[in-house]
Amino acid sequence: MNYGHLVAAAVTLAVFGLGWIRKWNKALLTVLGLVTFWALAAFVMVRFGFDMNGRATLPTEAFLRPGTGKVLDMGAGTGRSTLMVLEARPQSTVVALDSFGESYVEHFGAPKGETVLDEGRERLRDNLRAAGVDGRCTIQPGDMREMPLEAGTFDAIVSAYAIDHLNREGIGKALNEANRVLKPRGEFLLMVIAKDFWLNFTFGPMLMHSRMVAADFWERSLRGAGFEIVERGMRPATKYILARKP
Length: 246
Description:
CATH class of the largest domain: Alpha Beta
Number of domains: 2
CATH topology of the largest domain: Rossmann fold
Strand order of the largest sheet: 3-2-1-4-5-7-6
Structural class: alpha/beta
CATH superfamily of the largest domain: Vaccinia Virus protein VP39
Strand content: 15-25%
Shape: elongated
Radius of gyration: 21 Å
C-alpha cells in the first residue's frame, strides 16, 4: 500500500518513453503522462500524508486530557494505536486487545511457523519494546464483540481502523461492549477510515472494507450504544469521534 503506486508509475513511464521514441499518438501519450503523474502524486500522499508506517498522533488533545488512566485499545493489531496513546499520555497504561484471527491475517500476513495468536502477540510486543513502552502495556487476546473484560474497568478506550471492519451487527455489539467496560464519564476515541477525496484519489474503490455509510452513521451508532458525542473531526482518509459514557 505504501509503494504500489511507484510500480504503476514506473510501468506507465516506461511505456510513455517507448511511445515518445516511436512517436505514438499525442492523445495516448497525454493519457500515459497523466496516469504517471497520478501514480506519483498518490505515492506522495500515501507515504507522507497517510504515513501508515509512521508514528500515529492523537487526532485530538481532548482525549484523556489529565494524562493518566487505564486505556483499552480495541483491535490493537500490531500496536500503532497502542503506541499512539502510550507516547502521547506517558502516565497511562494500555490493555491491547485483538482477536489475532482471520482479520489479523488479512491485514498483517499469515504466521511463519507459529500460531496466529502467538505470532500476533510477539509482533505487538516487539513494537512495544522498540518504543520502550512495553512495561505499560498488557496484551489481551479477545473479540471486541464479546470482550473477556470486567465491566467498568477502563478510564478510556481507543479504537483505530478496527470497528469499521465489522458488519453492522458486529459494530453494534462492539460499541455496546465498549460502553460496558468503561467507567462512568469514561472516554471513547473512535477512528475509522473515511472515503474522502484523498482516499478516493489514491485508492479509489480498492479499499472495500471502508464501505459507504450515511454521514451521521457513526454518531448515531455511538448514541445508540449509550454514548454522548464530545468532538468530531477529519484527517486525510480518517474520521474521528470523541465520545463519552454518561
